[in-house]
Amino acid sequence: MAKLFFRFAAMNSGKSTQLLQIANNYESMGKTVALYTSAIDDRYGVGMITSRLNIQRESNTFDAGFDFLAQDYGDTACILVDEAQFMTPEQAQQLHRLAHTRNIPVICFGLRTDFRGHPFPGSAWLLSLAEDVEEIKTICQCGRKATMHIRIDGAGRRVKEGPQVEIGGEARYRAVCGRCFHQD
């Protein structure tokens, strides 16, 4: 029986690497996967899932108006979604329905919270609906488990205000533990 999975973590934990490995595992068995990433994440080009280990793969994209249920998945064995925090609550609900009505496992990877510690709406819904939730671990520069993010400016100073979504990698964000997150 298929189900909805959510794998969340702070940045630099290997989420995209794991997604690409899962895709490779299915395909090495002759099975078809459907890959999705957010259309707003253009760090490595629109429609590219890219690991910091320099593994890269083309992908379908979703935006706020995308309907996962309207797609023809044919003989797809698994649906893999990167940057799932950028999904809408409705899209998280669609993926839950898809897993249960079309019997296709759906594995989503994403961040849980933004740089202010606020939940991303897509992630909040995935945490509520997914039958299998797993935290992928990474560490803060102080050595503790990183669970949060801080946004930094060009000079490396912490930014505490601004829009929830501002695309950027290590030049704009750092994964930190709760203690470092609350230091001023």
UniProtKB/TrEMBL annotation:
Substrate binds at residues 165-168, 173. One of its GO terms (cellular component) is cytosol. Pfam families: TK (PF00265). The active site is at 83 (proton acceptor). Its main location: cytoplasm. The gene is tdk. Its EC number is 2.7.1.21. This is Thymidine kinase. It is found in: Cytoplasm. It comes from the Bacteria. NCBIfam families: PRK04296.1-5 (NF003300). It comes from Chromobacterium paludis. Homotetramer. Keywords: ATP-binding, Cytoplasm, DNA synthesis, Kinase, Metal-binding, Nucleotide-binding, Transferase, Zinc. It catalyses: thymidine + ATP = dTMP + ADP + H(+). The lineage of its organism: Bacteria, Pseudomonadati, Pseudomonadota, Betaproteobacteria, Neisseriales. ATP binds at residues 9-16, 82-85. HAMAP family: Thymidine_kinase.
